[in-house]
Amino acid sequence: MIRSAKVSDASSIAKVIFDTWQSAYSGIIDPAYPASLSKEKYSVIFQRLIKEKAEWVFVYEDEKSVVGFISGKEYQGNYDSEVKGLYVLPSYQGKGIGFSLLCYAKEYLKSSGCTNFILWTLYGAQNNGFYEANGGVGLERKKLKIGPKEYPAIGYCFYLEKREET
């Protein structure tokens, strides 16, 4: 079930982030970074984000607990919105949860009047194929600072309504 996140979900969201980072970018980033992550830090961050409505956050909950989430906010620039995070616990990946969360966010953004959004991820990560298969177009490039180092990133643009051909 997908629903809006509550402040009480913050520690579960932090666990999803922590567990996912342990394997998601293996071979791409310095392994010291995932090892340095703190569940408590992310729990505090998401408590604030949810409480202050600084980002929209939706969680995917199975019968027992939160196993994934998607979050985002308004974006300054060429896109209406930005997906800041889309994470699914490793043991739940490949079961359609990420797809469901992405579709839910697309509908939410469309209903909010958005016509597009961007999602940044590391270039060459396993998730690149997922975003491309689900309508993302890799149009943007930049460096992302992760810990003390910078890594090449790709920005996937998602269009929420049919674009006019020129």
Brief write-up:
The chain is α+β, with helices and mostly antiparallel strands.
Largest sheet: 7 strands, mixed
**Percent strand:** 25-35%
Quick one: how many beta strands? 7
- In helices, the fraction of residues equals 25-40%
Continuous helix count = 5
Name the overall outline.
globular
Report the mean per-residue pLDDT as an integer. 93
Arrangement of strands in the largest sheet: 1-2-3-4-5-7-6
Structural class by SSE content = alpha+beta
Low-confidence runs of at least 5 consecutive residues: none
Write the element-wise H/E pattern from the N-terminal end onward.
EHHHEEEHEHEE
Distance between the termini: 40 Å
List the helices and strands and how they pair.
Elements: E1 2-4, H1 10-24, H2 32-36, H3 39-52, E2 56-61, E3 66-74, E4 81-88, H4 97-111, E5 116-122, H5 127-133, E6 137-146, E7 149-159
Parallel strand pairs: 4-5
Antiparallel strand pairs: 1-2, 2-3, 3-4, 5-7, 6-7
Structural account:
Helix content is 34%, strand content 33%. The model has no long low-confidence stretch (mean pLDDT 93). It has a seven-stranded mixed β-sheet with strand order 1-2-3-4-5-7-6. Helix 1 packs across helix 3. The protein is built from five helices and seven strands. Strand 4, helix 4 and strand 5 form a beta-alpha-beta unit. It has 166 residues and is an alpha+beta fold.
